[in-house]
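call fold(seq) -> tokens
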Amino acid sequence: MNEQELFYAMALTRLTNFNFQQALELYRIAGSAQKIYEHRKDIGEIVRDCSPRLTEALKDWNEPMKRAELELKYMQEHGIRGLTPVDDDYPQRLCECTDAPIVLYYKGNADLNQAKIVSIVGTRQMTAYGQDLIRCFVRDLRQQCPQVLIVSGLAYGVDIHAHREALANGLPTVAVLAHGLDQIYPYRHKETAAQMLSHGGLLTEFMTQTNADKPNFVRRNRIVAGMSDSCIVVESASKGGGLITAEIAQSYDRTVFAFPGAVSMAYSEGCNNLIRDNVAGLISNASDFVKAMGWQEETRRQQALTDGIERNLFPDLSPEEQKVVCLLQQTNDLQLNILSVKTGIAIGPLTALLFQLEMKGVVRPLAGGMYHLLM
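ret:
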């Protein structure tokens, strides 16, 4: 982590007043928050279509920088990490979202770029039916995909049950919060949140002293959706936060699933509507989900290696293909641009080369422009 870049990114977030898309676009064009600061008085030279309002706002960094200084001090005292899109630990799946946060605050030990990440969302008024679905789903998912991260929002109902079942089954679980890391909302979930710090984590885009106000929950939902490979809605009424998360996930080209319920069940209406409208695929158990995601073959390969079965997965490779494979053997799950830099192969030829490796069953593309070595 570049602490100086983090400092300017934190201040920039304050300046843009949570206009996520505008902040991220500005950040990407300039290349860094520090560069935006350095060009604060002539920002038009690097961002030609910068609005007059934003141009004026970027001239005065005094208050945002003072606030960033206070926040950095709190983070150092409480073991909180700050992540920006240029950091390797930043959730890389979010980088392909147009409204991704340019700063995330994180406390925990889970890998936010785990090969398989699933978000589980739904109503706060969960029924016994929903509890049974989550318990069986997480238990069976653990057996079929032992390396998976469960993401939710720590709210009542589906969220907290997803977190607790993940912990009970030894799966890491991360809660995305709608407030700063100086508090836990709802307070009744404080004990579960504490357990997650050693087997998962707490993640937010909000600085301390930010309360769990209603608009923040919708903002939080886009992170839940964007950092995951798939979004699963367990139970939902005809309207609700879980449906918002599902819609956002679909807009990000994430795979959405829903558990069906009886037409007379109020908290199955939202799920049934998602399935009816072809927003979500219907699943009834973990096997349905794993098969739909195409994870069963990869899981079998991993199990074979764990059991010490000697297998020759790869055909003969060209020197350039071997270079990519060797790099992924050292550090798996790398983005296209990082692969290009470390192998010295230009993006165009590398894209074609990776496609050939995919056809040979050597690599698998992941969300966020990342590639995973299948061995």
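Residues 304-313 have pLDDT under 50 and may be disordered.
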